[in-house]
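Students often ask why we bother encoding 3D structure as a string. The short answer is that it lets us treat folding as translation between two languages. Here is a chain of 170 residues written in the first language.
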Amino acid sequence: HGVKVITAPFQAKDPVIATMKVCSYIQNVLVKKAALDAGADYAVSFGHDGFMTESSTENIAIVTRERELLAPKWGVILKGTTLTRLMELGRGMITDGLLADVRHQDISKVQVLDAAEAFICYTTTDVLPITAWDGLQVGDGRQGPVAKELLARMRAEYSDPSSPFLTRFM
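And here it is in the second language, the structure alphabet:
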């Protein structure tokens, strides 16, 4: 049914820290607390330059009205394995005519609020559609076709025994 997101009340981590695993998660905890205190599911940070970064432990992507799948540049966010795979799956959707482009770029709050779709992605849930941001409806307020298709393609890989993305345990 989608999740509610707010803009985090403070700036994102410095890019030097944002791109690596560290032992201090205080900022992640404070971002999540801000979301819960506001009655939202997640909070998303923006950098000092005004461009979107990530949530406490999740990556964010949007789909523009021109059917472009956009995610923040790797230099300001942790390179999430789920987002990495979704971007690759998205490139296949260009061939299928479902997307016009897939790329990393700076994303402003205006672009987020004008997006046809937005979603959170991470290992536990794969793809969660964002239906509201700061109390404003995102897209048509429901899971969009791109997020739905990306989730279906990712889940199909989980059930395909020949998938090169499955880890075999003995």
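Translate back mentally: The helical segments are 15-18, 26-37, 81-95, 109-114, 145-159. Keep this in mind for the problem set.
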